[in-house]
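Per reviewer request, we include the raw input and output of the structure prediction for the construct analysed in the revised manuscript.
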Amino acid sequence: MKRFLPLLTLGFIVLGGCGLEKPPAKLADEIKEAQNPKEEAAAPAEEAAAPAEELSPELAAGKEIYTANCAMCHDSGMMNAPKPGDKTAWEPRLAQGMDAVMKNTIEGFGGMPAKGGHPELTDEQIKSAVDYMVHGVQ
Protein backbone atom coordinates (compact mmCIF):
# COMPACT_ATOMS: atom_id res chain seq x y z
CA MET A 1 0.00 0.00 0.00
CA LYS A 2 2.82 2.41 0.84
CA ARG A 3 4.39 1.84 -2.60
CA PHE A 4 1.08 2.44 -4.32
CA LEU A 5 0.40 5.93 -2.91
CA PRO A 6 3.42 7.68 -4.54
CA LEU A 7 2.56 6.07 -7.87
CA LEU A 8 -1.06 7.16 -7.54
CA THR A 9 0.00 10.71 -6.68
CA LEU A 10 2.42 10.80 -9.62
CA GLY A 11 -0.35 9.49 -11.88
CA PHE A 12 -2.69 12.31 -10.84
CA ILE A 13 0.03 14.90 -11.46
CA VAL A 14 0.73 13.52 -14.94
CA LEU A 15 -2.96 13.35 -15.80
CA GLY A 16 -3.50 16.87 -14.51
CA GLY A 17 -0.80 18.14 -16.85
CA CYS A 18 -2.47 16.43 -19.82
CA GLY A 19 -5.40 18.84 -19.82
CA LEU A 20 -6.94 20.12 -23.00
CA GLU A 21 -5.03 22.87 -24.75
CA LYS A 22 -8.27 24.60 -25.63
CA PRO A 23 -11.81 24.03 -24.40
CA PRO A 24 -14.36 22.22 -26.57
CA ALA A 25 -16.08 24.45 -29.14
CA LYS A 26 -19.36 24.64 -27.22
CA LEU A 27 -17.62 25.58 -23.99
CA ALA A 28 -15.41 28.08 -25.81
CA ASP A 29 -18.51 29.83 -27.20
CA GLU A 30 -20.05 30.03 -23.74
CA ILE A 31 -16.83 31.48 -22.33
CA LYS A 32 -16.68 34.10 -25.11
CA GLU A 33 -20.31 35.10 -24.51
CA ALA A 34 -19.70 35.43 -20.79
CA GLN A 35 -16.61 37.57 -21.34
CA ASN A 36 -18.11 39.72 -24.10
CA PRO A 37 -21.85 40.09 -23.50
CA LYS A 38 -23.63 41.31 -26.58
CA GLU A 39 -25.80 44.39 -26.51
CA GLU A 40 -28.52 42.32 -28.18
CA ALA A 41 -28.77 40.15 -25.07
CA ALA A 42 -29.75 43.20 -23.00
CA ALA A 43 -32.64 44.12 -25.31
CA PRO A 44 -34.84 41.06 -24.57
CA ALA A 45 -34.42 41.66 -20.85
CA GLU A 46 -35.75 45.18 -21.31
CA GLU A 47 -38.65 43.85 -23.37
CA ALA A 48 -39.47 41.28 -20.70
CA ALA A 49 -39.55 44.00 -18.06
CA ALA A 50 -42.00 46.11 -20.08
CA PRO A 51 -45.14 43.97 -19.51
CA ALA A 52 -44.60 44.13 -15.74
CA GLU A 53 -44.96 47.90 -15.93
CA GLU A 54 -48.28 47.56 -17.75
CA LEU A 55 -50.00 45.71 -14.91
CA SER A 56 -53.06 47.33 -13.41
CA PRO A 57 -52.69 48.46 -9.79
CA GLU A 58 -54.75 45.46 -8.61
CA LEU A 59 -52.58 42.97 -10.48
CA ALA A 60 -49.41 44.75 -9.34
CA ALA A 61 -50.53 44.34 -5.72
CA GLY A 62 -51.28 40.69 -6.44
CA LYS A 63 -47.83 40.26 -7.93
CA GLU A 64 -46.22 41.60 -4.75
CA ILE A 65 -48.22 39.20 -2.59
CA TYR A 66 -47.47 36.33 -4.99
CA THR A 67 -43.73 37.07 -5.02
CA ALA A 68 -43.51 37.29 -1.24
CA ASN A 69 -45.72 34.32 -0.34
CA CYS A 70 -46.60 32.03 -3.25
CA ALA A 71 -43.71 32.04 -5.72
CA MET A 72 -41.60 29.44 -3.96
CA CYS A 73 -44.08 26.65 -4.70
CA HIS A 74 -45.85 27.97 -7.80
CA ASP A 75 -42.74 29.01 -9.77
CA SER A 76 -41.26 25.53 -9.36
CA GLY A 77 -44.56 23.71 -9.85
CA MET A 78 -44.06 21.94 -6.52
CA MET A 79 -46.69 19.25 -5.90
CA ASN A 80 -48.42 20.17 -9.19
CA ALA A 81 -48.92 23.81 -8.17
CA PRO A 82 -50.02 25.65 -11.32
CA LYS A 83 -47.44 28.13 -12.56
CA PRO A 84 -48.50 31.72 -13.17
CA GLY A 85 -49.81 32.22 -16.69
CA ASP A 86 -49.80 28.47 -17.49
CA LYS A 87 -53.18 28.30 -19.18
CA THR A 88 -53.21 24.51 -19.53
CA ALA A 89 -52.59 24.02 -15.80
CA TRP A 90 -55.19 26.61 -14.78
CA GLU A 91 -57.87 25.52 -17.28
CA PRO A 92 -59.30 22.58 -15.28
CA ARG A 93 -59.27 24.63 -12.08
CA LEU A 94 -61.01 27.60 -13.69
CA ALA A 95 -63.59 25.27 -15.27
CA GLN A 96 -64.93 24.77 -11.73
CA GLY A 97 -65.39 28.52 -11.42
CA MET A 98 -63.44 31.25 -9.72
CA ASP A 99 -65.43 30.79 -6.50
CA ALA A 100 -64.20 27.17 -6.26
CA VAL A 101 -60.62 28.26 -6.97
CA MET A 102 -60.81 30.87 -4.21
CA LYS A 103 -62.41 28.42 -1.76
CA ASN A 104 -59.65 25.88 -2.40
CA THR A 105 -56.99 28.56 -2.05
CA ILE A 106 -58.35 29.94 1.21
CA GLU A 107 -59.22 26.58 2.81
CA GLY A 108 -56.41 24.52 1.28
CA PHE A 109 -56.57 21.84 -1.38
CA GLY A 110 -54.45 18.77 -2.12
CA GLY A 111 -50.90 19.49 -0.97
CA MET A 112 -51.51 23.21 -0.53
CA PRO A 113 -52.25 24.34 3.02
CA ALA A 114 -54.91 26.95 3.74
CA LYS A 115 -53.89 30.34 2.33
CA GLY A 116 -50.72 28.72 1.03
CA GLY A 117 -49.40 28.41 4.57
CA HIS A 118 -49.71 32.16 5.24
CA PRO A 119 -52.70 32.58 7.60
CA GLU A 120 -51.81 36.26 8.13
CA LEU A 121 -52.99 37.06 4.59
CA THR A 122 -56.52 38.37 4.19
CA ASP A 123 -58.97 36.81 1.74
CA GLU A 124 -58.65 39.93 -0.44
CA GLN A 125 -54.86 39.56 -0.56
CA ILE A 126 -55.22 35.89 -1.52
CA LYS A 127 -57.72 36.86 -4.23
CA SER A 128 -55.36 39.45 -5.69
CA ALA A 129 -52.49 36.93 -5.76
CA VAL A 130 -54.71 34.36 -7.52
CA ASP A 131 -55.90 37.01 -10.00
CA TYR A 132 -52.26 37.80 -10.76
CA MET A 133 -51.41 34.12 -11.31
CA VAL A 134 -54.40 33.56 -13.56
CA HIS A 135 -54.61 36.85 -15.47
CA GLY A 136 -51.56 38.98 -14.84
CA VAL A 137 -48.89 36.88 -16.55
CA GLN A 138 -48.81 36.43 -20.31
